[in-house]
Amino acid sequence: MYMNDNGKIWLATGENRVYLEPSMANRHGLIAGATGTGKTVTLKVIAESFSDLGVPVFMADIKGDLTGMCKEGCENKHIRRSIDTMGIENFTYCSYPVRFFDVYAQNGHPVRTTVSEMGPELLGRLLGLNDTQSGVLRIVFRIADDKGLLLLDLKDLRSMVQHVGDNANEYKLTYGNVTSQSIGAIQRALLTLEDEGGDIFFGEPALNLADWFDWDENGRGVMNILECSELFQHPLLYATFLLWMLSELYEMLPEAGDLDKPKIAFFFDEAHLLFNDAPKALIEKVEQVVRLIRSKGVSVWFISQSPSDIPETVLAQIGSRVQHALRAYTPNEQKAIHYAARSFRVNPNFDTERVLQELAVGEALVSVLDEKGVPTIVERAGILPPRSSMNAVEPAELQAVINSSPLGVKYNQTVDRESAYEMLTAQHQAQQEAYEQEQAQLEEERAELEKAKQETELDKQRAKLEKEKEKLRLEREKLSQKAKSKSTYSSTRRKTSPMQKTINSAANTIGRELGKQLIRGIFGTLK
């Protein structure tokens, strides 16, 4: 442990030793410098010192070389030279208590969060939404909250977005206008996020940051290392995830005021990614969290190539600065050097801007806060060597550390409980079944109506047939009567008796004679 008698952390040595006040560590810090100048060594030394103090640590491991912290270091000429030139006594190598996490669950415990915990602001940035689309996303979250629908994973969010889009007219008066164009844009962005591994990242069991606050049997703070070599290939997901963790710490921890040492130290590697293309509102929120989280006992360290990568509002909250060498090959890089040099309290013994370009690997310009919170004069100093291994451990050793962690039982198995997707799916199925039942009932009623209609038509046809039958019956009766009458007359003529025939013959003869007489008489008269 690099400590002096007053409990200060021995960080570097130049003309004078540079000590970091643990009580001032929650004023945050910056480690900057060009690639290959020693930023990772500085990060490891500070992290080891915090662990020795009993402060848990979180670090993002982008290059994979932080895995060696679970293994004790070994002698090499560079470390031996540092030990000898800096006058380090009783230097010993040692390993540190480490737990590994990995979003993709390959080199550490799975790291997940829920969609609801991420929230619409960070998620909107992660999806690359514009202001209008972000507003619609906030409406989706608000409706889900009001209806008690849990948004845990991406399928929950997709189904909720679809539900809001399908029922936009119903929600319009209460929540505001939701256009189909915005719904479509959000759905497309969710598909892109899923392709980048978002379906792995969002889910349960969600990471409980309280699990980071742990110590080994010697009282050293556990180092929680997030394996980021693959996650870093998706910079927006990486940056958003780190911002989420910082905001979760802020929400979780109570106010603590000024402590003798931080509750936890948080290291943001490649910190410029947190702010690239970030909207002003998000940067303001980050600045607010960085400013206020100090009083909750969190020490935040930003690691980047140049101080200009960090917004000025955030840099204003930083107390300790370790600036490794910068290179000036372009006008913009020269401006960055000038900018970095002016951020230090001037040391009259050297030209800060010139020295920034002359620093060797492992050297840095260092300024920290003293016990009164005043920035010290910048010192040109060599960073002390780490006590853990500088090399990455073998995969078998890494897996052994992961398997020995007590957190495997808690996080390794995925849980998929009932949430928005299941509830909306059940609701949709119920609506579909009700619709199908209604359709079946309508079909049944339609069939009955058709049957009744057909029966009515048959009744009409029967009535018509009855009329026709009645008409035919009457006509038959009429014809029958006529035929009967004619048959009676013919029968009468055929049945005349001989007596009647004699009478009829006599009558006819008399008639003819009378006719002749009448005619002659008449003629006679004429004659």
> Based on helices, strands and strand pairing, what is the structural class?
alpha/beta
**Cα gyration radius (Å):** 51 Å
Order of helices and strands: EEEHEHEEHHHHHEHEHEHEHHEEHHHH
Tell me roughly what share of residues is in helical segments.
40-55%
Mean pLDDT: 86
Q: Strand-residue fraction?
A: 5-15%
Largest sheet entry: 12 strands, mixed
**First CA to last CA: what distance?**
186 Å
Query: Which overall shape is indicated by the principal axes computed on the Cα atoms?
Result: rod-shaped
Enumerate how many helices there are, as a single number.
Answer: 16
Strand line-up of the largest beta sheet = 2-1-12-11-10-3-9-8-4-7-5-6
pLDDT under 50 segments (min length 5)?
A: 518-527
Tell how many strands the DSSP assignment holds. 12
In short:
With 527 residues, the protein is of the alpha/beta class. The protein is built from 16 helices and twelve strands.
What can you see in these coordinates?
This protein is of the alpha/beta class and 527 residues long. It has helices spanning 39-52, 77-86, 115-127, 131-146, 154-166, 168-175, 180-201, 235-252, 280-292, 312-315, 331-342, 352-355, 395-404, 408-411, 420-494, 498-526, and strands at 9-13, 17-20, 29-32, 57-61, 98-102, 109-110, 223-227, 264-268, 298-304, 320-323, 363-367, 379-383. A hairpin with a 3-residue loop joins strand 1 (9-13) and strand 2 (17-20).
